[in-house]
Amino acid sequence: MGVIIEAKNIVTSFGDTVIHDDLNLSINQGEIYGILGESGSGKTLLLKEMIMLLKPTAGEMWVLGHELSKIPYNEAQSLRRQWGILFQFGALFTSLTVAENIELQLKEYTGIDKKMRDEIVKTKISMVGLSAHVGGLYPSELSGGMIKRAALARALAMDPKLLFLDEPTSGLDPIGARNFDALIMELRELLGITVVMITHDLESIHSVIDRFSVLADKHVVAEGTLENVLQSNHPFVERFFKNEYTLANYNKRARHHHV
Amino acid sequence: MSRVVIISLCDVIGYNGAMNQTYVHLEELADSIVVHAKGDWTLYSEPQINSELASFHPSKKIVWDLSKINSFDSAGVLLFMRFDEQFRAKFEVDVIGYTSEQQRMYELLKKHSVKEAIPERSEGMLSALGKRAVEGYREFLEFLDFTGYLLVAFLRYFVHPKNLRHKEITYHIERSGLSALPIIALTSFLVGMVISYQSAVELAKFGADVFIVDLAGISITRELAPLITAIVVAGRSGSAYTAQIGAMKITEEISAMRTMGFDPFYFLILPRMLALMISLPLLIFFADIIGIMGSMFAASLELNISYSQFIDRLQEVLAAKHFWIGIIKGPFFAVLIAMIGCFRGLQVTDDTESIGAQTTASVVNAIFFVIACDALFSVILTEWGI
Question: Which residues have a Cβ under 8 Å from the Cβ of A147 and sit 6 or more positions away?
Answer without folding.
Answer: A89, A90, A92, A139
